[in-house]
Amino acid sequence: MNDALPASFESWPELGETQGVILLELLLGGPRSRARLAEAAGLSRTSLTRIARDLIETGLLGEGELQPSGHRGRPSESLFLRPERAHFVGVKLTGEAAYVVITDLTAQVVAKVSAPLPNRSVDAVVALVAGLVADVSVGFPLVAAIGIGVAGDVSNVGGVEVLHRSNFLGWDGIALSRLVAEATGLPTSMSNDVHALAASLHWFGGLGAHRSLVVYGLGAGIGSGLVVANDAAPGAHGRAGRIGHSRMPGSGVTCAKGHQNCIHSFVTMPAIEANAGVDPGQYELALQRARAGDERALSAFRSASFALGVAVAESVNTVDPEIVAIMGEGRHMLDLAPDDFVSAATEYLEQVDFSQVRIERPDFHFDSYAQGAAVVAIRRLLTSRT
């Protein structure tokens, strides 16, 4: 692996706040006439002309003509984003591996690489990430920033992002984004992995017209991310969306807090494995047995589906979102036991009929986590928000 990014890599241009607004309008709204873009951004045509000229010189914008749309006169000149002009790196860390993607400015994945962690020491993981970033960035002259998604709480401590309680890595109080920035020379942001999924789904998942979302990520654990008032809402301490230890009927595997009747006892992939009677890491076997009608395995997925219904109901009661999106590699309980999910949600919802809750299951692959981390980097660069 290479140890550092090539010195010839270009850097992201210094942009003013208004230039960022223009880029954001085109990123989320698509090509538009100068007149409509000026109106959306609250600018005069003269100001837009000056700002657009500077952005065109950076290569981030292009200009052309819109086709006539029934109005008299010449077609209106349009501006459009050139997403291939800048690229962003997204990193997803688990307790076993690092998954790295590179995306264009519209979060389309154009390259990816992964590698197992040599060990879980901070120095080893930072060195691995820096090497993978260098490898995946070859051939992309403007790599603007890095985003990292990781299970755990990410808070801002004195202007520094700090990772707390990352159980899969065994880390607490680690300024990971600063360490990766020092190792790569690139601006680096960090977010809880499911919070990053929520931000990605809001901007690029076809749900941008909705001002509030709850996004669940089901896998080795369960996490949720929120969009409230049309913006990602990680919480004051990066802990928004914690729902895993709410109690429910029944008895499952003992969770890390000693509970046998919380959501964690049933809904995670390790919990399903234990409750289905298969060895750790044999989730696919549990799934096969449940599909074949094995009573114990099917019971494990039914309990997981009920637990998920409890979690969703609590989020709906608390946040009242327009949409609940369920993602992750461990969401098969919805296929195997949909009635249990509906039953639990119906039982735990307060003064809301389940038919009023819009549930979505967006396309998901494991790289979606790394892609979400890249979106965090894009958001930070354009808006100074995660």
Question: What is the structure about, briefly put?
Answer:
The protein has about 375 residues and is α/β, with parallel strands linked by helices. Helix content is about 40%, strand content about 20%.
Verbal overview:
- The protein has twelve helices and 15 strands.
- With 386 residues, the chain is an alpha/beta fold.
- It has three domains: 17-83, Arc Repressor Mutant, subunit A; 86-199 and 367-383, ATPase, nucleotide binding domain (Nucleotidyltransferase, domain 5); 209-360, ATPase, nucleotide binding domain (Nucleotidyltransferase, domain 5), CATH 3.30.420.
- The strands form four sheets. The chain has a five-stranded mixed beta sheet. Strands 13-12-11-14-15 form a five-stranded mixed beta sheet, with helices on both faces. Strands 1-3-2 form a three-stranded antiparallel beta sheet.
- A hairpin with a 3-residue loop joins β4 (87-93) and β5.
- The chain is globular and about 70 Å long.
- The two termini are 30 Å apart.
- Residues 5-9 have low confidence and may be disordered.
